[in-house]
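Hi U.,

Before I forget, here's the chain from the pilot set. I'm dumping it here mostly so it's searchable later in email.
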Amino acid sequence: MNTPSLPVFADVLAAAARIAPHAHVTPALRSRSLDALAGCTLHFKGEHLQRTGAFKFRGACNAVWSLGDADAARGVVTHSSGNHGAALALAARSRGIACHVVVPEGAVAAKLAAIAAYGAVLHRCAPTLAAREAMCAEVQARTGATLVHPYADPRVIAGQGTAALELLHQAGPLDVLVVPVGGGGLAAGTALALDGVAPHTRLVLAEPAGADDTLRSLREGRRVDDLVPDTLCDGLRGLLGLPNFAILAAHGGDGRAPPVDAVAVADDNAVAAMRRLLVHAKQLVEPSSAIALAAVLADPARFAGRRVGVLLSGGNVDPDRLPWHS
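Structure:
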């Protein structure tokens, strides 16, 4: 099987044009209170206000609308129990094609209901990555559907990079851009966007301390794949993908841009940042999203006096299970 080539900045530009009729241009948000607390000028990218409530719609939409007509007619398939599944289902619906989502037993019922509501066919499997991949392969063989991986697909990576392009257009030059990282689709796409339009902006990745494989991978110069994630940030439990690591490791390698930094953040700090965003900016986001602000607040000296972009990646929060209530 041929390995897909890594996406480049031109793919991010193409994705921006491709998804423009379908995706929201999300707002850039400001909060003087949070600026004062952080000691820097913060520019928040409100991807929690994107369609399906997360940045994931960008990559899914780009993947779906990249397909030729013959492939599109056979539909798409992925494995996901959350935001990517919902995003792919809505993107497929926008093109009028079938979407199959493999979901693990025990997944949150509300999230599965959201995926189904966007029109996807759910296929249940055991709660392991091997079971997910096996079920995806079975659905592919039976339907001819195209696999759209949640974060390692080049089309998904390129689509996710469009959020950073928008923020830079809205906010102007940034000294630093902080984004959450799990599987690395958003992180890698952001690196490509910065390569193309803002090579002097430093990319900082925020990840849970209990799922710090990206931090370890960048430090060791190899992809760490033997970590078992332990974090309440459910959107960041995926291990960094192979193409995602390759893109992040290469970022800054030509001397044009500073290398990528990664910051490990305690879950308690992510929850505290989530609450601060609600209180001071009136924005309700997931802990997996608030972790980007938490990374800034945890190390104020790193960001002091700078123009800092913070990408708020998603807002699909269960109002009955807010994490500061027992």
